[in-house]
Description:
mainly alpha, Bromodomain-like, two-stranded antiparallel sheet
Amino acid sequence: xxxxxxxxxxxxxxxxxxxxxxxxxxxxxxxxxxxxxxxxxxxxxxxxxxxxxxxxxxxxxxxxxxxxxxxxxxxxxxxxxxxxxxxxxxxxxxxxxxxxxxxxxxxxxxxxxxxxxxxxxxxxxxxxxxxxxxxxxxxxxxxxxxxxxxxxxxxxxxxxxxxxxxxxxxxxxxxxxxxxxxx
Length: 183
């Protein structure tokens, strides 16, 4: 019975196990993406290019969290998953921070609305599209939805910061040793 308990919690601190933390992060990212899609298709809130880039960051974090969860017996793969998950989260946090900054610009300093992301992808190479999107546009400054007074990019910034902290914890914290059944 004790072995099953150790799979989900670090018994010395009652801290969730590494595997459980990967699962929590994967579930959170999945639910965040589901919520974004619900708001897009049910409430007709069209995402701006920076919102789409944040979704890509959530997808990458979810992917590496799932890999970390599934490779729970391989220390190197767990550490690599934690590293890549943290990098994806830092990238998403940087995009969200830029988005929040654009939303808080005075009205006269907000960049003009540019062409849509689909047009940019059709016309420009990917590195140019990324550069143009990260500059932001007027549509990125618009706040259509809030939760407890926080815009979606502000909530994403907080989520990416927390995921980064957990990812770094998973990266540096010693992996629990497996019990040996040898006599």
